[in-house]
Design goal:
Layout: E1 2-6, H1 12-18, E2 23-28, E3 39-41, E4 54-57, H2 76-94, E5 103-109, H3 113-116, E6 122-124, E7 137-142, E8 156-158, E9 161-163, H4 181-186, H5 190-200, H6 204-221
Parallel strand pairs: 1-2, 1-4, 2-3, 4-5
Antiparallel strand pairs: 5-7, 6-7, 8-9
Helix pairs in contact: 1-5
């Protein structure tokens, strides 16, 4: 498949798909962190019209996530930046600029997109994909199944509350202030990138075979194979966002 990973400079998701034989490209205003040639350093709108099969978009969350929206009432210029960020993210979710791409996913932390555009189809956590970390991440999906958790990492308990390695006992993120803190926090966890490549990197014919296999397993074993049935994991993976 021909895949565009929008607003990514780390290369994590691009590398995951390329390792599985796909023609995957990343695009960002910044240069690729790994210096790879399969990266467009430009405004993503300049390459959206190309014939992509799958779009994975990571629009900047600075002016969208819930943790910073309280500043908008005190800083009118920031409120205007939020409006611009919403329009940019909407382009990936249901904009005419991306309507020709049959498979699309937009990723963002819990924030205002669910009320201003639409509710996400799924909320995932890195600790569901092999990372000792907490970061609730919303997914808006078009033409794609829900992403199925691959390996759950147990939390430590602090006064009856779950905490992971990237959190203080009070639940705050441990990453100290720095000039590139936003970049470090926005980087996609490798376990999530790998799951996307494994589960969404199938062709139509391959997916048809997987669906046939699932039906056979239901017929002969009375169960659906877990890797392609998110409902087997229960409500936490299918719930609506409250952002």
């Amino acid at each position: 498949m021909k895949i565009l990973v929008a607003c990514e400079s780390s290369g994590n998701t691009r590398r995951a798909f390329r390792a599985r034989g796909h023609d995957a490209w990343s695009c960002d205003l910044q240069a690729a962190d790994d210096g790879d040639e399969h990266h467009y350093q430009c405004d993503v709108r300049e390459v959206l019209s190309l014939p992509w099969d799958l779009l994975i978009a990571h629009p900047t969350c600075t002016f969208l996530c819930s943790s910073g929206l309280h500043w908008n009432k005190r800083r009118p210029e920031r409120a205007a930046q939020t409006e611009d960020a919403i329009l940019f993210a909407r382009m990936f979710i249901d904009g005419k600029e991306t309507a020709h791409i049959p498979k699309r996913v937009t990723e963002n932390p819990i924030g205002c997109l669910s009320s201003r555009v639409r509710r996400p189809d799924q909320i995932i956590q890195p600790h569901q994909f092999g990372h000792d970390a907490s970061k609730a991440t919303c997914l808006w999906l078009t033409g794609l199944p829900l992403l199925v958790p691959t390996r759950q990492i147990a939390a430590r308990m602090v006064n009856g509350k779950k905490r992971w390695a990237n959190q203080t006992d009070s639940g705050q993120n441990k990453l100290p202030p720095s000039a590139d803190r936003w970049k470090l926090r926005s980087e996609t966890y490798q376990g999530i990138s790998d799951a996307m490549a494994d589960q969404w990197g199938t062709t139509t014919q391959e997916q048809r075979l997987l669906d046939q296999r699932a039906q056979l397993e239901i017929q002969f074993y009375g169960r659906t194979p877990a890797p392609f049935d998110a409902s087997a994991y229960g409500a936490p993976y299918l719930r609506e966002a409250t952002c």
